[in-house]
Specification:
heterodimer; A: 113 residues; mainly beta; globular; B: 112 residues; four-stranded antiparallel β-sheet; 10 strands
Chain lengths: 113, 112
């Protein structure tokens, strides 16, 4: 599992409330990623980080923010959750010989009512 | 678990038979490819990868074939087992060494 944990694993929240998802890794990887996965779509990149305090937007970043104050933690925040953000969220790290292979966490299932 | 298999092409295969899963990738400049397996309720799991300077790579019971001429990638699973039932999707490195683009996936159902 590449030493990746995500919390919470399941969450139900109401529209308009803030939500923060946490990704934690234990192997000092530089690159970390947040994806969402929805039926009919492949994994879509929300944001990624290439170091402490270094982040960039992915293809579906609207409505999301991230923070990385230390190497091991990458936080994804929904400032005001909407029903369209109901999804499964996966965190990934990049590893491998040439730093190209991504390994995923177990996912967080989020339901916004 | 998550309904990641909804709307996906489905391959039904008899236990013990070989499976072939196909993927068309989008960018002729991609130079690195990965196959992932995702079981219901779990995160994607790395299976095997291949670089563009190769056309075939073998792992344990799996083989990946790359045809750069037609931008096609395939995953062959030998002697398919019930534990192989999952969604399989490919990924390509388009953006350089820090981002991947993912296919939508194929559902494999193994019939005992």
């Amino acid at each position: 599992d590449a030493g990746i944990t995500q919390s919470p694993r399941h969450k139900v929240t109401e529209t308009g409330t803030p939500v923060t998802l946490r990704c934690h890794q234990t192997e000092n990887h530089r690159y970390m990623y947040w994806y969402r996965q929805d039926p009919g779509h492949g994994l879509r990149l929300i944001h990624y980080s290439y170091g402490v305090k270094d982040t960039d937007k992915g293809e579906v970043s609207d409505g999301y923010s991230v923070s990385r104050s230390k190497t091991e933690d990458f936080l994804l925040t929904l400032e005001s959750a909407t029903s369209s953000q109901t999804s499964v969220y996966f965190c990934a790290i990049m590893s491998g010989t040439d730093q190209e292979t991504q390994y995923f966490g177990p996912g967080t299932r989020l339901l916004v009512l | 678990g998550e309904n990641v298999g909804l709307h996906l092409p489905t391959l039904s295969v008899q236990e013990g038979d070989n499976s072939i899963i196909n993927c068309a990738y989008s960018n002729s400049a991609s130079d690195y490819f990965i196959w992932y397996k995702q079981e219901s309720g779990k995160g994607p799991q790395f299976i095997i990868d291949i670089r563009s300077n190769m056309d075939k790579r073998q792992g344990q019971r799996v083989t990946v074939l790359l045809n750069k001429t037609v931008k096609h990638l395939s995953l062959q699973i030998a002697a398919t087992q019930p534990g192989d039932s999952a969604v399989y999707f490919c990924a390509e490195n388009i953006y350089g060494n820090n981002r991947l683009a993912f296919g939508k996936g194929n559902q494999v159902v193994v019939i005992p």
